[in-house]
Amino acid sequence: MFTIKKATVSDAKDLGLIHALSWKKAYEGIAPKEILDKITPEKRAQFFEKALTLQWEEDYLLTVDDLPAGLLCLGKARDEDCMDATGEIWGIYLHPDLYGQGYGRILLESGLSELRHRGFQRAVLWVLKDNIHAIRFYEHLGFREEGAEKELFIGKPLSEVRFIIEL
To answer: Which residues contact 148 (CB under 8 A, 6 or more apart)?
Structure first.
């Protein structure tokens, strides 16, 4: 049994746990170990408490059997070259114990449905170029690489690529 609800400040601890565990697993071998070791559920919970209090982002919490299982962040596309009709999946994270069970797909489809409901015609998301598992997941669900690329620094320079899907 699963539920998806809009997260509130009281969910910050659960969001922090999911985010930290997911990052450590998904970016293992991509981001430096010393960076991943510094990511803790407590530090991430502090971020989510502040982000939700100040309404920096809009997060959704997936629970499975009443346990925190997934996190989705969405909204209007943040890139200047995206038109007003473009929404964005800002982030999607799943508890590593639930990988491969269909919950990532459920969470992503829920987010795309919400963006569609808001009138967006397309959605974008950014993914690390080296995160082949995530790229395959997004492509399987209909996203395609759109061509935009940017560099970010997570202990070392890493490239992100933008994917797009028509809603």
So the answer is: 79, 81, 161, 162
Token pair of 138 as six digits: 């997004």
Please tell me the distance from the alpha carbon of residue 3 to that of residue 33, in angstroms, as a whole number.
33
Q: Which two tokens stand for residue 92?
A: 């999607």
3-state DSSP percent of the chain in helix, strand and coil, to 5 = 40, 35, 25
Residue 55 structure tokens: 């309404």
Q: What is the pLDDT of residues 27-72, one digit of tens each?
A: 999 999 999 999 999 999 999 999 999 999 999 999 999 999 999 9
Length of the chain: 167
CA distance 43 to 153: 19
Are 160 and 126 in contact, with CB atoms under 8 Å apart? yes
CB proximity list for 32: less than 8 A, separation 6 or greater? 154, 155, 156
**pTM for the whole structure:** 0.94
Amino acid at 55: Q
Residue 24: is it exposed, middle or buried by C-beta count within 10 angstroms (0-12/13-18/19+)? middle
Task: State the pairing for strand pair 122-128/86-94.
Answer: parallel
Helix orientation angle between 41-53 and 12-26, rounded to the nearest 10 degrees: 130
Greatest alpha-carbon pair distance for the chain in Å reads: 42
Count the neighbouring beta carbons within 10 Å of the beta carbon of residue 84: 10
